[in-house]
Amino acid sequence: MPQEDHEIFDLVSALEAAEGKGTTFYSLLEVSPSASSAEIGKAYRKKSISMHPDKNRGVKDAEKRYARLGVIAKILRDIEGRERYDFFYKNGVPKWRGTGYYYERFRPGLITVLIFLIILTSGIQHIIQRHNRTRDLSRIERFIRLGKATAYGPKGLAIEGKRKVRVPSGGGPRGGGGRMVDLLVDANVFILCAGPGRDPVLLDESMAPYPLIKDTWAISLFLSAYSRVARTIGTGRPTTKSNIHGAPEVESSGNETSDNPANETSSRKPISQAGGQRRKGTTKRK
Question: Which of 30, 98, 129, 249 has the fewest CB atoms in 10 Å of its CB?
């Protein structure tokens, strides 16, 4: 790093310490960064009068401030010196780290790195999903074209009724050979699924839905976790009601019956009046 740059760094550090953080060579002279050399010279003469030590008696470091002003004006009026300062003025000045000047670099933390990786992997997954959809649409269109060509012939004249045809799946070399796929051709083209009792599946764009951002792993994982928590909160609390004394009791169904016969008997036993009830066929003792 050239010595001239060190001089600029030292001046910037001393200027901010004396005049306030963010003070620049241009703001000190009260000119714009696009000012010409003549405008800088005029601003320097005006500023040197107000900052002269004779007019600032008793002001701390008045002579240092005045000398610093002269050096700054000299750098800005020099073509090469101004180009060097403008470079650091636009891109930032390195920070002093005890043994030299070092550029202050951004050091992301663990959370920032994780967020970046989540966004990056989700973006890559979304791009792959869109690519796979384009590939699937191409295969669907190919099956439809081959199915109709096989069913209706080269002229493509539609024939009434359904026709079952077999076309190559495209797994062989140059799209031919390999496994065969059974199709059912009508006004539309259907793919016949293996296995008894399975209905034909219509070949159209609905078989390759457009991938959404929520289909990426990060959003899907978040939505799944959120739905589980919501279900747990919604079903984890029993419905309660309060009795006349204010104590909560669990609401139970009116169709429940007691498993204890004694309870059933006691519930059916009529309530007798005080003093008891006289039995029939008994004589009163004298």
Answer: 98
Place of tokens 């929520």: 214
Number of domain units in the chain: 2
Give the pLDDT of residue 72.
93
Q: Report the distance separating Cα 150 and Cα 165, nearest Å.
A: 7
Q: Which of 102, 135, 150 is the C-terminal boundary of a domain?
A: 102
Domain final residue pick, 74, 102, 130: 102
Q: Which bin fits 57, alpha (ψ -120 to 50), beta or left (φ > 0)?
A: beta
Residue type, 42: K
Residue 201 is part of which domain span? 112-207
Instruction: Note whether 86 and 120 are same-domain residues.
Output: no
Cβ atoms of residues 90 and 82 within 8 Å:
no
Residues near 112 by Cβ (< 8 Å), separated by ≥ 6? none
pTM exceeding 0.70? no
